[in-house]
Design a protein that fits this description.
This protein is mainly beta. The chain has 1 helix and 6 strands, in the order E-E-E-E-E-E-H. The protein folds into 2 domains: 1-36, no CATH class; 38-74, no CATH class.
């Protein structure tokens, strides 16, 4: 997902968009330098993102679960 927040200037309205969006549907800003977040159910290593807890100019905090079955079978 993309957040309408330009990482270079800090401008933007904060509207949440799908990762494929190019223009903010709310304010019309380009999403070229938007904050990119992992979608729920995305796997990162042994972790699966459950939800976004919060985000700011420098990144995001996620709630995630570790898949212990995959770790044990290696």
């Amino acid at each position: 997902m993309r957040i309408c927040r330009n990482l270079l200037t800090g401008a933007g309205c904060g509207t949440i968009h799908p990762s494929t969006a190019r223009i903010c549907k709310n304010c019309g800003s380009s999403l070229r330098y938007a904050l990119e977040l992992h979608d729920p159910d995305t796997e990162i290593g042994n972790y699966r993102v459950r939800k976004v807890i919060g985000f700011g100019s420098f990144g995001a905090v996620y709630e995630a679960m570790i898949d212990l079955l995959n770790v044990a079978s290696r």
